[in-house]
Amino acid sequence: MIKLPILVPALALTLTSLVFSAAAEEPKISTFCRYVPERADDFAWENDRVAFRAYGPALRGGAENSGIDCWLKRVSYPIIDRWYAQDAKGRSYHEDHGEGLDCYHVGSSAGVGGTGLWLKGKREPLETYVGHVIYESTRERSRFKLTYECEIDGAIYKEEKTITLELGEQLFRAHSVFFRNGRIAAGLPVCVGVTTHDGRAASFFNRNQGWIACWEKFEDSGLGTAVRMAPGNVREIRQVDSAQPDESHILILAVTDERGAIDYEAGFGWTKAGALTGRSDWEAYLATHRRPFPSG
Fold first, then answer.
1. Are 53 and 163 a contacting pair, CB within 8 Å?
2. Which residues pair with 189 in a beta bridge?
3. What's the pTM value of the predicted model, to 2 decimals?
4. Ranges assigned E (strand) in 79-230
5. From residue 69, how far is each of 102, 111, 169, 279 by CA, in Å?
């Protein structure tokens, strides 16, 4: 006869351990950001819907500059650490293994939301970032600063870009302050843009609402990208078509205020993530997304 009093506690202990083990391993929804020295000084950030990366000092002098990359995630939990670790072991994040992938090409373009100067009728990016500071990385919000610096036509330009990404948002917020030769650069012509991937993406905009956008196909999915600025700060929307790779964009042209600053939002929506079903959904999102920008 089996003595249940001896076996039942052991069985209960085993089942309890399995429950606690499963709970401990379940990924938690949160925003996240970090410096990634093991992958050429990337800086990456994400929330439950979108993920991005900027290029750092190790890539300075190469094709990459201040352009921003999209990581197309389709799970709500953080993937940055997972994808970098898996890629280092030979499981490429350029292929979708169930969580999404990086299929978005940036190269020397602005990517989605990359800034630059607007000098002599063209975009002049400030190279890769040279410094970073993390202010906050919590469940609800990640906030950090990337510093860019570059010499252009004999002058030293610097940009201090503070980025904030909150849980549940498709767009990150950026506050950029520009300097010229160590001084605040008020009235500086600047641009913020989205690559059209050499014209393969359809571009469109709403001047009255202050946004520019692209829609493009990636195999069996669609991707909407965008930049948004307070309409009163948009000086011009410029479509740039070029025969040179990575130079075709839709851009917002603006001028820095008396503090040398501009404020904008940038981000994306991916159909495989379930955020939208097509271009009309992306346009509707941008038309109704009206978070106020800071003033003064």
1. no
2. 255
3. 0.90
4. 100-101, 112-119, 122-124, 129-137, 141-152, 155-166, 171-180, 183-184, 189-195, 202-206, 211-218, 221-228
5. 8, 6, 17, 20
The pLDDT tens digits for 43-56 are 999 999 999 999 99
Q: How far is CA 110 from the centre of its chain?
A: 11
Strand partners, 43: 35, 54
Characterize the bridge pairing of strands 261-270 and 171-180: antiparallel
Closest to 70 (Cα-Cα) out of 128, 112, 127, 129: 112
Question: What distance in Å separates the CA atoms of residue 279 and residue 223, rounded to the nearest whole number?
Answer: 8
Instruction: Enumerate domains of the chain plus CATH numbers.
Output: 32-288 (2.70.98)
> What is the per-residue DSSP string for 45-94?
EE-SS-EEEE--GGGTTSS--S-EEEEEE-SSS--HHHHHHHHHTT--TT
Q: 92: which 2 tokens?
A: 């490429």
Q: Which residues pair with 266 in a beta bridge?
A: 172, 227
Instruction: Evaluate whether 153 touches 163 at the Cβ level (below 8 Å).
Output: no
Looking at residue 275, the DSSP 8-state letter turns out to be S
β pairing state of 42-46 and 32-36: antiparallel
Token code pair at residue 264: 């904008």
pLDDT tens digits for range 255-295: 999 999 999 999 999 999 997 999 999 999 999 988 888 76
Return all residues near 201 (Cβ < 8 A) that are at least 6 apart.
195, 214, 215, 216, 225
Q: Give the rounded distance of the alpha carbon of 179 from its chain centre.
A: 23
Long-range contacts of 33-37 (CB under 8 A, 24+ apart): 33/134, 33/137, 33/142, 33/144, 33/165, 34/80, 34/81, 34/134, 34/137, 35/132, 35/134, 36/80, 36/84
SS3 132: strand
